[in-house]
Structures are given as structure tokens and as C-alpha cells.
Amino acid sequence: MEEKYKTVKKYIGLALYTPILVFYYYISKTYDTIYSNSSSTSEEFLNLKYFGGFYFTGWNFSGQVYFLVVAVADELTILTGLSTLTNKIITTVRHYLFTAIVFPSTVLVGVLFWSLYVMDRELVFPQSLDEFYPAWITHSVHSFVVVPLIIEINLPKEQDYDIVEFQKALPILTAFVVCYQTALIAVYFLHDVWLYPLFKFISWFQRILLLEMLYCMTVVFLYVGIYLQHLKRQLTDTKFSY
What's the pLDDT band for 1 if we cut at 50, 70, 90? Predict the structure, then answer.
């Protein structure tokens, strides 16, 4: 029984992440199909079509894809017994990518999108877009993306695995958020387009304040993600101590 558990533990990460990676590929191809098959002149639709890569949801989705590729590669290096150095490098990239970018960004996307959607969906995803995007794809990039977070935190790991600490992850998260916010503002100055309708109705002071608040939210979510990882390890250590 114990041997069977060890076998399952060995393959569980690969078995869970591979189909999610395939599903994400399908989502990307679905977006391509939507954009290639529609000649709509709707402003909201055209913004998504031509500036889709500048929405934070898109940045987060891309971050998850990169993370899944690294995670699958990491699982494969363990299974195939590649050199310790190669495995260590890939594992380190996996932990930093997950902790510093994927976890805080994904939680921000989920919390912010659905909060604004409930209050007034026109501020974040106008009803006119329902004509082009089926509900399942909206949930895929704003709700389902939480699943890899749950999996990564709960995957069986060695008891002495390294958790990226807050002070090391914060500069990476800060650089990521600053790059995104710079891109967001650049799109406005270069194309006179605010990707998020909310920005049209507030002053520059309020916009800067909002961007700072969103950054602070990602920092809080970074802390929460690290706390959950430490909590999971403590629970695991307690389990093995009996």
C-alpha cells in the first residue's frame, strides 16, 4: 500500500498539470477563432482584439502558462533522473514564478474581476461582449485559474523543500506590476485607449491612487500565498511527526 502511494505521489503533479496545460492551449486557440471569425466594430471588442495582450488577465494567463510549462518540465526532470543541478535550477524557477507572480496575480484577477462584475459589470466586462465570448471562457481565465494555485500548494513535496521568502519575492512582484502598469498607461498615450472602462470616469489623481492600491493588494496576496505554503508544510511536518 505504501509503495502504491509513493508511485501515485511521483506522478501526480505531471498527471494534474499536463491536461490543464492542454486546456489552456485550447483556450488560446478559441480566442484566435473568435477574433478571426468576427468583423464586429464594437469598441469594447476591438480593444480586446487588438490590445488583448495588455490586459492584466492576459498577463496573468501567460504567467500561468509559463508556470505550467516549468512545472511539467520540473516533474519530468525528477521522473527521468536528470542531473541534480538541472533539476535544482528548474525547481527554483518554478518556486519563484509561482510565489512571486502567479499566486498574487491570479488572486488579484479573481477577486477584482468578480467584485467589479457584481457591482457594475460595465466597468470591467460590458454586457455587449457576451455576444462574442461564451461564459465558459470568461470563467476559464477569471475563475478556473485558481485551480493551479490549489494544486501547487497541496502537491506532495519533500519536507525540506525551499519556500521563497517574502523579501526575495517582493522585488520580482514589484517589477512585474510596474511593467504592467507602465504598459497600461503607454497604451493610453500611444492609442488614446483606456483598456478598463473605469479609468475613463476618474481623474489622473484617482488613477494613480487606484494603481497604487492594486499594487498593495498584490503585496498582500503575496504574503498570503507564502503564509499558506508555510502552513501546509507545518501541517505536513505535524503529520509525519506522529
Answer: very low
> Measuring CA to CA, how many Å separate 191 from each of 40, 92, 165, 177, 210?
19, 39, 39, 21, 21
Global pTM value:
0.91
Q: For the ranges 161-165, 178-182, 190-194, which has the lowest average pLDDT?
A: 161-165
SS3 annotation, the chain: CHHHHHHHHHHHHHHHHHHHHHHHHHHHHHHHHHHHHCCCCCHHHHHHHHHHHHCHHHHHHHHHHHHHHHHHHHHHHHHHCCCHHHHHHHHHHHHHHHHHHHHHHHHHHHHHHHHHHHHHHHHCCCHHHHHCCCHHHHHHHHCHHHHHHHHHHHCCCCCCCCCCCHHHHHHHHHHHHHHHHHHHHHHHHHHCCCCCHHHHHCCHHHHHHHHHHHHHHHHHHHHHHHHHHHHHHHHHHHHHHC
